[in-house]
């Protein structure tokens, strides 16, 4: 495979001048069906759009430019709005926008990023990035192949989102059909129960950054010696108790550990473990419930910027007295949904690992698409 070194600015068209930032207050008044993008993805939904088509969005600022905990470039298609924290790009003829997105995410951009407290990738610095590009036919072949992984991941995510919404609807129905509010969360859940994990014992660690703001499954974990933190096991729900993680919806349902395995994570988690006949999935649905989140946020204490809600306060949230029959029906309905979500999430992790292993080899020319047998 032969490459030609090109400057980013020579092979792209920039649409940054069309961006319009909206404040949180402005967005609150303009809620709608169109995605509103920031540096790292969709951060809100608004009632209008600026862009219509397929564009490459590249983070302009933010800590992730240096840490690269997640991709700094992503494709956005359809109708959407972008604020002034993401560059908006299209490719010139002869260049595949998908390939360029993959290449940017693989490239070391540290030499183009300025600022330490607030890293920034300016338009001029971005345009100066030198990239090795193969012929268009090779770009398309690699992008077509890798896109198959991404599309399957996206399909699984859409299925999971749909299943989760069905579970939430079942929880809402459970609450609506109850005739009282005679119980508290603490009647259904142990809050921060003790779990056995010895100091320095190797265990699975799930950092706050791994928790999703909208889905049940974390983005990953790592094996580390236990040195402190909240401990949890299968059936537990993790709820972030500190601002802004609580408001942002950092939550997880734990159902992927081995039998008897204990994992650990941030001291800023509240762990909800089911009592007696409580379906464990019910506690996750509760943790995602808007009324519950509103209650938790309004009952945070502490100095500005470091406010927390206590486990005791969470335990005092009012719930109906559910009869055993209703809980049993709820469990029968939602348990298969969570099993399917777990299967899809684990498959997505495997697909992402394989994609990330193959991508640099394909883009460097070490292997070709025709050499791969899946």
UniProtKB/TrEMBL annotation:
One Pfam family hit: Methylase_S
Family annotation (CDD domains): RMtype1_S_Aco12261I-TRD2-CR2, RMtype1_S_EcoEI-TRD1-CR1_like
GO molecular function, one term: DNA binding
All residue ranges annotated as the Type I restriction modification DNA specificity domain in the record: 5-164
The keyword Hydrolase is annotated on this UniProt entry: yes
Keywords per UniProt: DNA-binding, Endonuclease, Hydrolase, Nuclease, Restriction system
GO annotation terms (biological process): DNA restriction-modification system
InterPro entries tied to this protein: Restrct_endonuc_typeI_TRD (IPR000055), Restrct_endonuc_typeI_TRD_sf (IPR044946), Type-I_RS_S_subunit (IPR052021)
Family recorded in the similarity comment: Belongs to the type-I restriction system S methylase family.
Name of protein: Restriction endonuclease subunit S
Organism annotation: Faecalibacterium prausnitzii
